[in-house]
Amino acid sequence: MTTISDFSPNGDTMAENRKVEDVFDDTYKEKEGPKPPRQIVWRNVVLMALLHTGALYGLTITPSASILTLLWTVVCFLISALGVTAGAHRLWSHRSYKASLPLRIFLAFGNSMAFQNDIFEWARDHRVHHKFSETDADPHNALRGFFFSHIGWLLVRKHPDVIEKGRKLDVSDLKADPVVMFQKKHYKMSVLLVCFGVPMFVPWYLWGESLWVGYFVPGLLRYCAVLNATWLVNSAAHMWGMRPYDLTINPRENRFVALSAIGEGFHNYHHTFPYDYSTSEFGHKLNFTTFFIDGMHSLGLARECKQASKEVVMARIQRTGKGSHKSG
C-alpha cells in the first residue's frame, strides 16, 4: 500500500493540493442570471420507465426462479457493481491504485455488464462531479433535489457548464489505456452481450432455467438494482448522514448506501480524500470493493494502492470536520 503522509503548511496532504482532475475547484463561479431551461430527453424517460416496470415484474417472478438462478443473480450484481466501484470509479476516475491487464479486462467486462455509460464517459463525468461538486457544472448536482441527483439528471440535457468543463478536463490517461478505448469503441455490442445476453443465457444453458426468467431476474432486475445502488451515492449520500471529515461540503457518511453500493457510502471521507483507494478509513467494514481490491493486491493483480495516513485524516478532522470524531 502507498500511504500519503506528506503535510503542507495548512494541514492538507500534498496529494490534495496537486492540480489533479478530481480535486474540487473553488475558483469556479456559476453564471449570473436565469438558469437555462430544462430540456427533457423523452427517449430516456420512456426507457427508464420500461426498465423499472420490467424490474418490478422481475421481482414478482423471483419466487419461480431456481436457487442457482438466484445465486447467479447475486454474482452478476457483484460483477457489475465491481465494474463501477473498483473499475470506473476507484481505478479509472481517481487512479487510486494500478491494475494489471487481466484485472482491467475483468473490470471492463463488469462495467459493460453494469451499463452505466462506457468507462471513458463515466470517469470523465465523475471527475467533473468532484471538481465542481454541488454547482451547475456538477452532472448530478444534489442541490437540485433528490430526484434530480438520483435519476433526473439522466432524463434531461446536461447543463452547458457540465459539457464545457468536461471538455477541458485532462483525460489523456483514459485515452492511453487500450482497455478503456476498446470498450468505448465496442460499447453497444458489449452491453448487448454482457449486460443482457450473459445473465440470461448462462442459467438457461447450464441448469435449464427459462430464458424468460433469465431475462427478467438476473437480467433486468439485477441491472436496475445496480443502477439504483449507484445512484444512491449521488443522491442519498449527498443528503443524509454525518460529515466527520469536512463540514464545509455536502457529501455524507451513509451506511445504507455503503451496504447497497458495496462500499461507496463513506462519501464525506471520499470527497475529502478522493485519492484513497478504500474510500473509507474502516478497511473492509461495509466495503466489499476494498475487500476485492485487497484480494487482487495479494494476488499481484493490483498495486500501488494509495491511502491517506492516520495523521493526515486526524489533521483534517481537527481542521474542517468534527474535532470530536474518533478516527478509525
UniProtKB/TrEMBL annotation:
One of its GO terms (biological process) is response to fatty acid. The keyword Lipid metabolism applies. Pfam families: FA_desaturase. CDD domains: Delta9-FADS-like. It is a multi-pass membrane protein. Its cofactor is Fe(2+). The histidine box domains are involved in binding the catalytic metal ions. It comes from Clupea harengus (Atlantic herring). Belongs to the fatty acid desaturase type 1 family. GO terms for molecular function: iron ion binding; palmitoyl-CoA 9-desaturase activity; stearoyl-CoA 9-desaturase activity. GO terms for cellular component: endoplasmic reticulum membrane. It catalyses: octadecanoyl-CoA + 2 Fe(II)-[cytochrome b5] + O2 + 2 H(+) = (9Z)-octadecenoyl-CoA + 2 Fe(III)-[cytochrome b5] + 2 H2O. The lineage of its organism: Eukaryota, Metazoa, Chordata, Craniata, Vertebrata. The chain crosses the membrane at residues 40-59, 65-88, 189-206, 212-233. InterPro entries: Acyl-CoA_DS, FA_desaturase_dom, FADS-1_CS. Residues 71-275 form the Fatty acid desaturase domain. This is stearoyl-CoA 9-desaturase. Its main location: endoplasmic reticulum. Its EC number is 1.14.19.1.
